[in-house]
Amino acid sequence: xxxxxxxxxxxxxxxxxxxxxxxxxxxxxxxLLHGPTGAGKTSVLDAVCYALYGxxxxxxxxxxxxxxxxxxHAAPGTxxxxxxxxxxxxxRLEITRQPPWxxxxxxxKGTTVxxxxxxxxxxxxxxxxxxxxSRSHQEIGEEITQLLGMSREQFCQVVLLPQxxxxxxxxxxxxxxxKLLGRLFDTRRFAEVEKRLAERRRATEAQVRxxxxxxxxxxxxxxxxxxxxMELPELAPGEPGLAExxxxxxxxxxxxxxxxxxxxxxRLTAAESARAATGRELADARELDxxxxxxxxxxxxxxxxxERSDAHRAAQERMERARKAEAVAPALELRDxxxxxxxxxxxxxxxxxxxxxxxxxxxxAAPLAAAARRAAEELGGLESARRAERRLAALVEERAGLDRxxxxxxxxxxxxxxxxxxxxxxxxxxxxxxxxxxxxxxxxEQLAVQRDPARxRLTAARQRDRLTDDTEAARxxxxxxxxxxVEARAHWLDLKEQRLHGxxxxxxxxxxxxxxxxxxxxxxxxxxxxxxxxxxxxxxxxRALTAYQTADELRAQAERHLGTVREALAxxxxxxxxxxxxxxxxxxxxLDGAYTRARATASGLHAAQEELRRAEGEREQRVAAQQQxxxxxxxxxxxxxRLEREQALLEEELTLARGTAESVTARAAxxxxxxxxxxxxxxxxxxxxxxxxxLKDADARLSDAAFRxxxxxxxxxxxxxxxxxxxxxxxxxxxxxxxxxxxxxxxxAEADTAxxxxxxxxxxxxxxxxxxxxxxxxxxxxxxxxxxDRCRAELDRLSAHAAxxxxxxxxxxxxxxxxxxLASLAAGTSADNERRMRLExxxxxxxxxxxxxxxxxRLLRMSSGRYTLVHSDDRSGRGRSGLGLHVVDAWTxxxxxxxxxxxxxxxxxxxxxALGLADxxxxxxxxxxxxxxxxxxxxxxxxxxxxxxxxxxxxxxxERDRSVxxxxxVPDLRRRIHAQLEVVKGRSGSVLRQRGAx
Length: 998
What we know:
The protein is an alpha+beta fold. Helix content is 68%, strand content 10%. The longest helix has 79 residues, at 423-501.
């Protein structure tokens, strides 16, 4: 990487545009960047870093996304810009960056913030012109980082060599060196490996502990199942041998459970045998008791049968008479039926004769039938007169209908004439409504177009009024925040100045006898400075700086808010104009009222059109109805004449047929009633004669049947009969007596029952008690056997589960052992790691060894062959080894710590270390050439001879076509180095003055 040109505008202390021609400065290979303190030497290097990476080193970036990079001396209209032209990886590039810029608005009051911008261009040697590559911050950042092969932190350590940092690195302990080397060589992946191994060890350890906890839980369950016969191992989850101890204890518990099961089986067999013997004895006692009770019950039943023997013989005789009477029952039933039928027929005949005229009341069945036939023949002759009477009624109804139609048509004609008389007036009114609604709709559309702009202006005016107050309030807050920021900055600068006045006392506080001074390098401190009252330390200064940064951030936020409110006010004013809000509200309200009224009127357009259409349709219907009514009235005249002629003929015919009755229908009803009465009387008379004959025949057959059955009279036979219920009850009693007698005789005849009756009474209570005791002992033995079997099965199940868990955990235990060993080895805590060196430290140690070798090549020249830097991996006390750095003194031949070097020796040793580190980091970054380097301060601690040797080493860098810029304010360097870039400070800002090698 070679720098060609740097252009700075309004950056840092540079208020105007400044340019640096690095090609001219680099012609001599060594150039000097000098100027008074605070002039801006470091700002030139910050500009190079900002152009490449978009940010500056350390805390100088500040807050506000780069807005603090702007020069306080710059003109308000000048934007901050940094442009760098360089060659990297064979490509000539130009990078232009502009940080965010808070400027005055082009229109209106207030400020606005322009976003940061970045341009990347590349020079094309074929066309001899620049071509644009990108304007994306992200793309340009990724492209530059890829081309340089290093991050911003690496660039600041390798290209902008800060000597103070390397002096501290030279004297630092292993932990501090590890932090710096870790940032430069990015060994985070090795630290991540350590972290991953530790996490994996913890994860596998947790899994093993979880598995052991589950195994112990199984062991506790086995102990609960086995009772006091199992002892648990006194081991915690994760301890070695836990699985074997649990399996061994489980095996002992299973063997014990099987022995207990065998004993329980034998006890159960003995209990079952005893239970069977007592069961047989109980069955024998129960059978004896049953037979004895059976014999006693049979004797009692026999006695009761003897007491009821007379009643049984009387029942048998009653059943015999009932069987004889059953032969007479059909004749009795037939005689009762005949008597009932005769009674009903006589009653019906009496009722029918009571309805006949007196002349026919005593007539026989034949005369009554003849009279009924004559009435029926007369009724048949009235059928024609009935039809004529129905037709006459229809004619009357038809004439009445014609009259109703005539009246309805007349009403239709009159209503139509009345309605049509007002038609023109109605039509004119409806048409006027339609026209008015159409005009209102047109007016509403015009008003709608005017309403939206009026509403927008009114909303903008209200927002304008509100933002006017908000702008004033925001301005007051911005002024207050600015005053607070100025006061905080003044306070910080005062404390900083006070601390600088007392810095000697602060440095002297860290001095110890025999330790070189960081300023002069002396090991003796006869009169160190002392802190005075009111001394300002670093913490106080940093607190003041933090307070200033917070106040400045609040000021920037307040100013941004003020700019936002002003922009909103300008937009609202542009929309609303200067018209008062009340006037705009009144105009908008008038437009809304007119629009509402027009919409209300226009909303009746459709209803008015529909009402007009309905009125026109109704007019057409009424005209048609009027015409149809006139046609129907003319057609009804002929029909009425025809109906009148037919009605006269029918009335003449009906007068003859009615006779003395009111109508033909009434005459026909008289004849129908007479014929029905005569027919009914004739039928009932014949039925009474038939039933009287059947009753006489039934009496004769009943007397004959009673005599043959052995009864003196039919009444005796009827008294001997039993109904079904009484017959069944009597038969049931006879059957029950016979069944009971047979059962008693059978029981008394049983040999075993009689033998049991002769034996002593059975002792059933004692037998049942013996059987209950045997049952209880059997249940206890069975429960004990079941419990032993369940214990054995549970132990087998839990043991199998535990064995499966042990087999499943075996690979995990092996993995845990392996991972734990690797994690301990990588973390430096393993016994195998003799030097207790972490993996990241091991990698960094290799890098430090390379850096020491590269630095020694230059340190030998700077120290006239006296000093050599070597890497040491010795342990320091009880700490870890790997990042030690020693210097070998060729004059004494001894190796000593770098902290023993003097101030000047420390400077050129740290310079050699920085140059060597730059070479190693460059190789690590992919071999990108770094043709331009900067070395910041530190030359004032060298004597003339050492300074010449250091400058010879730096001058030798030109052999690689490198250029080195020395940042220093040492006066002797201005004489020795001819190519110079001077930074001159003034009240209007700093300026750059360049002088080439010639």
